UniProtKB/TrEMBL annotation, chains A, B:
<feature type="binding site">
    <location>
        <position position="250"/>
    </location>
    <ligand>
        <name>Mg(2+)</name>
    </ligand>
</feature>
<feature type="binding site">
    <location>
        <position position="125"/>
    </location>
    <ligand>
        <name>Ca(2+)</name>
    </ligand>
</feature>
<dbReference type="InterPro" id="IPR005959">
    <property type="entry name" value="Fumarylacetoacetase"/>
</dbReference>
<feature type="binding site">
    <location>
        <position position="254"/>
    </location>
    <ligand>
        <name>Mg(2+)</name>
    </ligand>
</feature>
<dbReference type="Pfam" id="PF09298">
    <property type="entry name" value="FAA_hydrolase_N"/>
</dbReference>
<dbReference type="InterPro" id="IPR036663">
    <property type="entry name" value="Fumarylacetoacetase_C_sf"/>
</dbReference>
<dbReference type="GO" id="GO:0006559">
    <property type="term" value="P:L-phenylalanine catabolic process"/>
</dbReference>
<dbReference type="InterPro" id="IPR011234">
    <property type="entry name" value="Fumarylacetoacetase-like_C"/>
</dbReference>
<feature type="binding site">
    <location>
        <position position="127"/>
    </location>
    <ligand>
        <name>substrate</name>
    </ligand>
</feature>
<keyword id="KW-0106">Calcium</keyword>
<keyword id="KW-0378">Hydrolase</keyword>
<dbReference type="GO" id="GO:1902000">
    <property type="term" value="P:homogentisate catabolic process"/>
</dbReference>
<feature type="binding site">
    <location>
        <position position="141"/>
    </location>
    <ligand>
        <name>substrate</name>
    </ligand>
</feature>
<dbReference type="Pfam" id="PF01557">
    <property type="entry name" value="FAA_hydrolase"/>
</dbReference>
<feature type="binding site">
    <location>
        <position position="230"/>
    </location>
    <ligand>
        <name>Mg(2+)</name>
    </ligand>
</feature>
<keyword id="KW-0585">Phenylalanine catabolism</keyword>
<feature type="binding site">
    <location>
        <position position="346"/>
    </location>
    <ligand>
        <name>substrate</name>
    </ligand>
</feature>
């Protein structure tokens, strides 16, 4: 599919992350307006609440856009999702008869503050990148035992903490936690010394289910995707995670990009999961191309210094798709709700340069990464700004996500001082 | 403290779970009324929404009781919690000048349907009973390695699934899941064959926090307690839980009792945590008696047959209090919200007769339990009705929770049939 032309000039460049082909959904505010639903188009945001009030968009008898989340639109169901996208394309396409009515409802993105685009209902984080699982497993258990026996049969995941989800641009405070090195006699309570990123994609559940659903049903229930950084305190994790999994090591913050890129916008970029080393059981098998060809990268900028690219990889490197994760999530009858967020797991490619965490890039701290400034990093320093970038590359256009960024603040001197 | 006398006659018996000393909070509906907040007193429920409308209770400028959850009352804060309890005691105490105005607002409990008493924000399940952890660890790793190295230093917990919380009386459908026995060549997808209960208490967070809080602050932030049955699919759990913890094995359902027993009602029953085998780090240390002396038991009734008591134990058998769990939960900066629910972990006493799960009672299925009917159980059968009972025993009165019960429905023949 080629670039779709819009009368919004900035949307027609090959460089904009937000051409008419994309139309991602966010929540924005300005000096004059409270947080509300908007759609990115070039370097502008279409104020959906204003468009609804003006009668240009009519999705439901009740207004659904004058709220600081997209959950109400999701609740309307897939037909409404399709109708909204079709209507937005009508309004914003080159030659639209409604250009004159729509143009005043555009807000420059530069004047807007972006907020979390949804109310996150519950958050689940998976471990579905095979290279990542192999790398981490090799470090902890040796390469011969790297992959747990269940790994090729189910997408391993654990429940995370929805309250910790923040939008891109939110500073992240280095956490305290209980730590115990392998040679320490006793644990101590101290600031995390091995704070890390995890490069992930997040899938947003747009339709509730109450019982097991198939992979095809799960795919249909996904509303869209975001970039996701699962900040991880490796030293807290090492001490706490046996036997019941990560807990406080993953609860400080998880940052998502501000725009929900819809499944419809990503449709041309569908790609197959990799060849299966062991056949999946029927209820988890692919029902078509279910991953997406999305280029991903991570940059690290020390305070006041230029950014270095830490890694470049692609979402298609995953072993399990979000639809397979969601299907597995329902096998026990677990009810899923609108606004549930599923982290893909860290996306690492096969090469060293494509690893999705500092844990892997520095091989547990043994091979520090050298930045362009000459500094080295095994894990994150205070003041570091980490940014995830993502784009699906089309014919003369790209589908971008907007940056997923956060700056590390130093740990509190005394976490209990009031 | 002796029994407090009420003009509601049924509240003055030593046998009622709901004397004036208790006043637990629930949500009820009748043929004539939608779900709303109510307070149990003897065999009656005081309709708090009606009392608010009549001007007998005034907690806030806005009505807070004519909703199907107690979250709005919790949001008002601890002073309002105290004021409400004081006012309810005024209204319902023997000799109350407002008896005549209040009496018409009582609804017989027998005519009411009980609902979930709160909107569960997020759910965390702990593993803080030492006897349980030791028993399970012994079965899986032998008694010498039973307790993980971190166990005596932090209350181990994992995030559960809030969407799976149901109120007492809700039937529980036996789940399907991926299973693989130690001698199976490959996993298969089949109904769970080792479905189990876990006898727990649940603590309800009534005040939000955004950063680390002390144990004393955590104790102050707890609104009340419920009984909690963490239904567990042991065969699904065994295959999935390494390396990231329980997931689908715990996501079918978790049942809670219908009445939130307030911290204030339980105050006379505070008791110390057991002696510490290793000193806790300062931020997790007790700051007074923080467990409660609550007698607990579990009964199992096969379909159409009388119930057998499976176990009798006490909440004071826990190693960590809910306040310590909540404090630990915030160490990383994890934001906590009103309506968060914390499961205590399985409450097993030291003797065989006081174990809180069939996994322990039947020692992994090796020593089936014999019921009064002569049948045996290693795990739960379809049609079994499981009931948790709990009461703090005072001087001529008791503080009860109401039953926490559920009946096992057979697994679906084909979970994907529509």
């Amino acid at each position: 599919m080629p670039l779709m032309k819009s009368w919004v000039a900035s949307a027609n460049s090959a460089e904009t992350p937000f051409p008419l082909n994309n139309l991602p959904y966010g929540v924005f505010s300005t000096e004059d307006s409270d947080p509300r639903c908007g759609v990115a188009i070039g370097d502008m945001i279409l104020d959906c609440a204003a468009a609804e009030e003006a009668g240009l968009i009519e999705l439901s008898d009740e207004p659904v856009f004058d709220v600081p989340f997209w959950n109400e639109v999701m609740e309307l169901g897939a037909e409404a999702w399709d109708a909204l996208r079709a209507r937005l394309i009508q309004l914003l396409a080159d030659g639209s008869p409604e250009q004159a009515a729509t143009a005043p409802l555009l807000v420059p993105m530069a004047d807007a503050t972006l907020h979390l685009p949804l109310l996150v209902s519950e958050y689940t984080d998976f471990y579905a990148g095979k290279n990542h699982a192999f790398n981490v497993g090799s470090m902890f258990r040796g390469p011969e035992n790297a992959l747990p026996p269940n790994w090729l049969h189910i997408p391993i995941g654990y429940n995370g903490r929805a309250s910790s989800i923040v939008v891109s641009g939110t500073d992240v405070r280095r956490p305290w936690g209980q730590l115990k090195g392998p040679n320490d006699e006793a644990p101590r309570f101290a600031p995390c010394a091995r704070f890390d990123l995890e490069l992930e994609m997040g899938a947003i559940v747009g339709r509730a289910s109450d019982g097991p659903i198939t992979v095809a049903e799960a795919d249909a229930n996904i509303f869209g995707y975001v970039l996701l950084n699962d900040w991880s305190a490796r030293d807290i994790q090492a001490w706490e995670y046996q036997p019941l999994g990560p807990f406080q090591s993953k609860a400080t913050a998880t940052t998502i990009s501000p725009w929900i890129v819809t499944k419809a916008a990503l449709e041309p970029f569908r790609t197959n999961t990799p060849a299966r080393e062991k056949d999946l059981l029927p209820h988890l098998r692919d029902c078509g191309p279910m991953l997406y060809d999305i280029d991903l990268s991570v940059t690290l900028a020390p305070k006041g210094k230029p950014a270095t690219t830490l890694t470049r990889t692609n979402y298609s490197a995953m072993y399990y798709s979000a639809a397979q994760q969601l299907a597995h999530h329902t096998t026990s009858g677990c009810p899923m709700n609108v606004g549930d967020l599923l982290g893909s797991g860290t996306i690492s490619g096969e090469t060293k340069e494509s690893r999705g965490s500092l844990l892997e890039l520095s091989w547990g701290g043994k091979e520090p990464v050298t930045l362009d400034s000459g500094e080295t990093r095994s894990f994150l320093d205070d003041g570091d700004t980490l940014t995830l970038h993502g784009a699906a590359k089309g014919d003369g256009y790209q589908i971008g996500f907007g940056d997923c960024t956060g700056t590390i603040l130093p740990a509190l001197t005394d976490p209990y001082a009031r």
